[in-house]
Amino acid sequence: MYALIVPASTPLILLVVVMALSWWEDHILPSPPTEPAESPVETPLTPAQFPELAHVDTTLTREVAGR
Question: What is the per-residue DSSP string for 50-66?
Answer without folding.
Answer: -HHHH---HHHHHHHHT
